[in-house]
Amino acid sequence: MPKCGHEILVRGAQCAKPSTRTAAAVHVQRRTAGKKNARGRLRERIDAVRAFAATIDVTDPYAKTHSRNVSNYAEAIATLLGLPLSRIESIKAAALLHDVGKIVVPHAILVKPGPLTDEEFEAIKRHPAAAMDILAPIGFPSDERRLILHHHERYDGAGYPDGLSGERIPLGARVLSVADALDVMLSPRCYKGPYSLDRVRSELRAGAGRQFDPTVAEAALEWLACLPALFGLGDRRPGSMPPSIPIEATDATSARLASDGAPQLAPSTKRTRVPT
Predict the structure, then answer these.
(1) DSSP string, the chain
(2) Which of 92, 102, 112, 192 is an active site residue?
(3) Of the ranges 35-49, 107-121, 246-260, which one carries the lowest mean pLDDT score?
């Protein structure tokens, strides 16, 4: 009776000379060790870049946990979207370094509370491309670099750097866009207090289909609906943050919110900033 292919392979392996089996085992061990070493070197380089990028957070107390928060929010949203674990891990990794390109932006621009000049705005808009220049040489995965490059695109095509719209924007970048805006709204800044959860929900609904992918925004709303029960917050954000501080919808505040990735408070007759 003819043997199946699997049985032939197994018997062939069993009958192989000891030297052949040993050589094959050594080859596999070397390949495995090489992959582990490569991953280790990449991790070391990423950690070095992350530490370098953290110098921005040190000088801006309002942004010191921003990247970590965005990573956590992005994980929650991606999970609710039903993405596979491998894609969720990629999105989380990109989130941790999504603002690394701001290393090249003058600090005075990053912490400026009001509207930016045209020159300052152009400097801000360079940070996604700057991230590519920083991350590509260290071997940061290209798929994750694409998420960082496009996390300031808008669903309606009014974002940057490439003006992509709708599903032309990588899904992971659409997730980062919402997660980024969530942290800006939920966290205090030099020009505002943290928003209440009700206000954040309103802004997400208003931005769906314009700034945000509607499906991603809906997932974020679903996650926000769980927060009061999970943390016992009532209408407060996680992390023992005080209730939101009322602020006026001035042109300066609206523009600053937009520059940080959050929806604007109200329409303005002056030139306002695209999310940075």
Answers:
(1) -PPPHHHHHHHHHHHS-HHHHHHHHHHHHHHHHHHHHHHHHHHHHHHHHHHHHHHHHHH-GGGTTHHHHHHHHHHHHHHHTT--HHHHHHHHHHHHTTTGGGGGS-HHHHT--SPPPHHHHHHHHTHHHHHHHHHGGGT--HHHHHHHHTTT--TTS--SSS---GGGS-HHHHHHHHHHHHHHHHS-BTTB-PPPHHHHHHHHHHHBTTTB-HHHHHHHHHHHHHHHHHHT-SSS-TTTPPPPPP----HHHHHHHHHTTSPPSS--SS--PPP-
(2) 102
(3) 246-260
Q: Please state the rounded mean pLDDT for residues 29-36.
A: 60
Q: What is the mean pLDDT of residues 210-224?
A: 97
**Has 36 been annotated as catalytic?**
no
Single out the residue of 161, 185, 193 nearest to residue 73, CA to CA: 185
Mean pLDDT of the residues in the chain: 76
Give yes or no for residue 112 having a pLDDT over 90.
Answer: no
Confidence of residue 23 (pLDDT cuts 50, 70, 90): low
CATH value of 5-259 in 2.30.110.10, 1.10.3720.10, 1.10.3210.10, 3.20.20.70 = 1.10.3210.10
